[in-house]
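Bug #77: duplicate submission created two jobs. Keeping one. Sequence:
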Amino acid sequence: MTEPTKPAGPETESESEKESSQSILDFGSALTHTPHGDIYCLTIIGQIEGHTTAASNTKTTKYEHVLPLLAKLEESEDVDGVLFLLNTVGGDVEAGLAIAELIAGMTKPTVSIVLGGSHSIGVPLAVAARRSFAVPSAAMTIHPVRMSGTVIAAPQTYHYFERLQERIVAFVSGHSGISGEDFQSLMLKKDDMAADVGSVIYGEEAVSLGLIDQVGGLSDGLQSLYRQIGEHKEKKT
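Kept job's structure:
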């Protein structure tokens, strides 16, 4: 006796589509196949989580997830370029710098787009890609390194924070068009923030200061990434 045929219905998701959907849920990332090449989109959102776990109700970007993922993307033959979408309040300084250094060290085409905000340690993350963009409404808060937890009131403690701040200034000035002196003056500005020192700058202002390469959104970032991929392929051949 023959089995009844199954009624026609909507097509089920392929395994690759399921994996992509799960990747978006787990890591805020997606791999897209385009005529220009395969692009991996990675979001850096919320708080950059360091060695201490953030509260359960806080959206975070975990460095223990991002660091090995970036290493994998650099080595993968299935990825031609990486697009970083940023909307972060900042967070752990050393975790943020670690992610930024890894992005800056990638040989593959990379583009970052600041959406919403890229504050505090999010600034080095924004400038780490080969080409950086910011939408006009994007905001970036630049301020000195904060102290938290138990602080030993000794000269060595203040010297450590001074050295840490110098590392941030050197990274930002080395990966953008702003000088170290100008970036440090933005850090220590007294007029912009009511209860703190520092500066809040927006998309077009960040470009005019040399901090971000170009004002633009998703289409602009993708076009830049496509050009980089084309140039990268030409060099390889």
